[in-house]
Design a protein that fits this description.
The mean pLDDT is about 90. The protein folds into two domains: about 60 residues; about 220 residues, Ribonuclease H-like superfamily/Ribonuclease H (Nucleotidyltransferase, domain 5), CATH 3.30.420.10. Strand 3 and strand 4 form a beta hairpin. Strands 1, 2, 3, 4, 5 and 6 form a six-stranded mixed β-sheet that branches. It is about 40% helix and about 15% strand. It is built from nine helices and six strands.
């Protein structure tokens, strides 16, 4: 019972409601309103027209409570276990593919940086303490000729079907190669595929220490071009590695995750994990149907 004496909402029903919000990219107000108007929303969540339906503030509080209790990553793992029970190989797949994508901040910065960190280049200089606006965790990064303000979302997918195994989010300027160890904490694989940004001496030693076969694309260095064998190896790896890029494309096009809906790293990470569950659900339906 709540302090007001009203029955507490069922957690599973509320979680299903959050999934609908991310599937259709609805705000908390839009989600609460849709629940009152759409029979399919009620059917999926288990609410009825005569239920005491949650309002937008209740949805907001429940979403933030799951962040506070650090539940979202565990929910993705549990969802993947249920998919594996259907015969789909995800967390126990032979190989994992890792990459990262940029997600725009929900807020607009107060200040534009003339020389932001260039994507996929290690920045060894200190970052000044700058007021970035309401979203103080977001950062600038330059990709190609364009500057982006937001976050970098890392994902690992299995090498068979491309289901998302884990998600990790940081501000946009982080150097991707430095986050391989963080990603390996949440996955179990015998071989790892990644693009050339992860081809560093430290990462090669890390994979060797963990007895994981190195399937990272080879990177040419100055005065040492790739051999024909290395080029062929890169081509063969790329034929499988596209699965992680495919997951980012679907999350951005189908689930509108090119831009975050919330401020702060923890909230954007929570949203990314919910989008990952939506993505895995869609992929599972397409494979099983």
């Amino acid at each position: 019972m709540t302090r007001q004496g009203r029955p507490a909402y069922d957690c599973i029903m509320m979680f299903k409601l959050l999934l609908l919000g991310q599937w259709y990219s609805l705000s908390d107000r839009e989600l609460a309103s849709s629940l009152r108007l759409r029979i399919d929303f009620m059917y999926f969540t288990g609410f009825t027209p005569t239920s005491n339906l949650p309002d937008y503030s209740t949805v907001n509080k429940f979403r933030n409570l799951l962040i506070e209790k650090k539940k979202y990553k565990r929910l993705l793992k549990e969802f993947n276990k249920q998919l594996e029970a259907l015969g789909l190989s995800i967390n126990n797949a032979k190989g994992a593919i890792i990459d990262a994508t940029l997600v725009e901040s929900a807020g607009r910065p107060n200040k534009h940086i003339d020389n932001p960190v260039e994507d996929r280049k290690e920045d060894k200089t200190s970052i000044p303490n700058i007021s970035y606006g309401k979203d103080t965790d977001a950062r600038w990064i330059k990709k190609g000729s364009k500057s982006h303000y937001g976050y970098k979302v890392f994902a690992s997918v299995d090498d068979k079907h491309g289901f998302i195994q884990t998600i990790h989010t940081e501000s946009a300027e982080v150097y991707e190669a430095h986050r391989l160890e963080t990603m390996l904490e949440d996955i179990n694989c015998k071989q790892l595929l990644a693009d050339k940004a992860y081809d560093t001496a430290a990462n090669r030693e890390l994979l060797k220490a963990n007895k994981i076969n190195n399937r990272v694309l080879k990177k040419a260095v100055r005065n040492k071009p790739l051999t024909k064998r290395q080029k062929l190896r890169n081509i063969l790896i790329s034929k499988v590695r596209y699965k992680v890029e495919q997951c980012f494309g679907t999350m951005k096009r189908k689930f509108n995750f090119a831009r975050a809906s919330y401020f702060s790293t923890v909230k954007v990470n929570a949203q990314a994990l919910l989008k990952a569950i939506c993505f895995n659900a869609l992929k599972a339906v397409n494979l099983i149907a």
